[in-house]
Amino acid sequence: MTTSYARAGDFQPPSFRLDGRVALVTGAGRGLGQAVALALAHAGADLAAAARSTVEVEETCARAAALGRQTLARPVDLLEPGNAAALVQDTVSNFGRLDVLVHAAGINIRQPAGDFTPADVSRIMRVNVESAFFLAQAAAPVMRGAGRGRIICITSVATRVAIPRVSVYSMSKAALEQMVRALAIEWARDGITVNAIAPGRFWTSMTDAVFSNPALHESAVRVIPMGRPGVPTDLGGAAVFLASDASAYMTGQTIVVDGGWLASAGVAG
Questions:
Q1: 0.85 exceeded by the pTM?
Q2: What are the extents of the domains in the chain?
């Protein structure tokens, strides 16, 4: 079945609102995941927030509830097999639906490539890639039944440039972006879009040792055309866009949010 093209006179402004929708966000206890979760709540979505820390995830939910949103706080360890699918089921059981899934949970180990053990590699891949796959796998039937859904993964510009001491992290994020493309084409006709957001150099708890050191801060920021590191709220707009009807014809893509770093080819301004 085909549909006619929309003429200019038929144009309807895209909606970025998420009222009546339910979003599940992993890694929602702090940093980028928390910022994304709260951006979706500000746009109208009810929120299921998941993270390892009970205190942190409850704090995120308290902030979303203050906006008038229904919330569900779920402490979860995505290293444990089965927890991803159980988290999706828990969300659906509580809200009766799931419209948006954001996988922002991730771990990193900074060390020379020769120092990684099999356990190190397994731990990073299980959280960053395998749990993302099983979350999406569990969410897809729910979204398919509703005729629409949005899946968003947080990746990294480390998929595009080589950064010392984060080889396994970079591998995991590259795998995640390929997963996004593969699932996007499989589920496109189900009304499910699958996209990614790749942050550049962001100041979070994971990078505080760099950006709180004046010398390291200057070195890191020198190659960013905007002249500053990203902060978690800088991801909010991209996340809301990908979660909303405004991105309905976009799937299998990665939005880079990096202050112009990649565009500059790493040349200091």
A1: yes
A2: 15-203+232-257
